[in-house]
UniProtKB/TrEMBL annotation:
<dbReference type="InterPro" id="IPR011032">
    <property type="entry name" value="GroES-like_sf"/>
</dbReference>
<dbReference type="InterPro" id="IPR041694">
    <property type="entry name" value="ADH_N_2"/>
</dbReference>
<dbReference type="InterPro" id="IPR045010">
    <property type="entry name" value="MDR_fam"/>
</dbReference>
<protein>
    <submittedName>
        <fullName>NADP-dependent oxidoreductase</fullName>
    </submittedName>
</protein>
<feature type="domain" description="Enoyl reductase (ER)">
    <location>
        <begin position="17"/>
        <end position="336"/>
    </location>
</feature>
<dbReference type="InterPro" id="IPR036291">
    <property type="entry name" value="NAD(P)-bd_dom_sf"/>
</dbReference>
<dbReference type="InterPro" id="IPR020843">
    <property type="entry name" value="ER"/>
</dbReference>
<dbReference type="Pfam" id="PF00107">
    <property type="entry name" value="ADH_zinc_N"/>
</dbReference>
<dbReference type="Pfam" id="PF16884">
    <property type="entry name" value="ADH_N_2"/>
</dbReference>
<dbReference type="InterPro" id="IPR013149">
    <property type="entry name" value="ADH-like_C"/>
</dbReference>
<keyword id="KW-0560">Oxidoreductase</keyword>
Length: 338
């Protein structure tokens, strides 16, 4: 009987600062037969996400580190080839918490496996605007920010997978939305395609001046994806009663060590007139995924929410796609098509 070979991306060494290709290694293994209770899923698309970076460090207290030789973990869209688990049927497409490998075997415990709904959209959309990125934008806005018509909302990493959706949700609420992105191309995309009212290039020398001009009435909501210096600039413009959903802190992720992924929350809470700043994980609202997914799916299918994908071909390209993410080379959702 012909053996099935699985291909995996594993952690070869702990990164020292910025991630490099040598931090990863491609391995091949013979795929074993399924045991009772197990499910065999073939991954077709991988989600490349910044939150994986802290888990590559040797010592982390806030998240579980990936051990040396361990397969890199991440979200995927896959097809269930075989199931010996009575709770999961073969022959269906699913969103799942998976790993960077061609085939994924699980007993269904300590993971998430969600069947995909019928939709004319590409299945990869369930890793982006109708996946975790979209859910983060939805819950960050709906449960924490709650923007009102006429308020000013600022979105960092505005051309990225989360920020692009968060800003469009704020526009649907009637807010004045200002994006922050790196480079003229991204800023034009944020305004011309996504419909933000303005977008400021943080790479320009007069960034602070441009940001203040774009937010002449101050800032009522700041959707935080970046942290670092950008957060300190926005903090100077916050109005009384401002809300700050803290979704990410990507500017700090490559520093290594036991860093706090929720650092911006403590920064904003330490301000003299502290806004309501709240670090959140999208899984806090796991039970409400049906609500968010239905809303996001309708918004994308109807064209109310626009999105973009940056697609890399082949599992072996996952490490480079991950590096590109931190170099800001992606537009919208960063994906690998296996």
């Amino acid at each position: 009987m012909e053996q099935t070979i699985n291909q995996s991306v594993v952690l070869a060494q702990h990164p020292k600062g910025s991630v490099i290709l040598a931090d990863f290694r491609i391995e091949k293994q013979v795929l074993p037969a399924l045991n009772e209770g197990e499910i065999l899923i073939e991954n077709h698309w991988l989600s490349i996400d910044p939150y994986v970076r802290p888990r590559l460090n040797k010592d982390m207290s806030m998240v579980n580190p990936i051990p040396l030789g361990g397969v890199i973990q991440g979200e995927a869209i896959g097809f269930i080839i075989e199931s010996k688990n009575p709770q999961v049927a073969a022959g269906q497409w699913v969103f799942l918490l998976s790993t960077w490998q061609r085939y994924f075997v699980t007993n269904g415990k300590n993971t998430i496996i969600l069947p995909l709904p019928d939709s004319p959209l590409p299945k990869s959309v369930f890793l982006g605007p109708v996946g975790t990125a979209g859910r983060a934008a939805y819950f960050g806005m709906d449960r924490i920010a709650r923007p009102k018509a006429g308020e000013t909302v600022v979105i960092s990493a505005a051309s990225g997978a989360v920020g692009s959706i968060a800003g469009q949700i704020a526009k649907m609420a009637g807010a004045h939305v200002v994006g922050i992105a790196g480079g003229d191309k991204k800023c034009r995309y944020v305004v011309d395609t996504l419909g933000f009212d303005a977008c400021v290039d943080y790479k320009t020398k007069d960034f602070k001046v441009q940001l203040r001009q774009a937010c002449q009435e101050g800032v009522d909501v700041y959707f935080e994806n970046v942290g670092g210096k950008i957060a300190t600039f926005v903090a100077q413009l916050l109005n009384e009663g401002a809300r700050v959903p803290v979704c990410g802190n990507i500017s700090e992720y490559n520093k290594g060590g036991d860093m706090k992924t929720s650092g911006p929350e403590q920064f904003f809470q330490s301000l003299p007139s502290a806004p309501h700043a709240q670090f959140f994980l999208v899984t806090q609202w796991l039970k409400d995924y049906p609500e968010s997914d239905a809303w996001l799916l309708h918004a994308v299918e109807s064209g109310q929410i626009k999105y973009r994908e940056t697609m890399h071909a082949g599992l072996e390209q996952a490490p480079q796609a991950f590096i590109d993410l931190f170099d800001g080379l992606n537009m919208g959702k960063q994906l690998v098509k296996i």
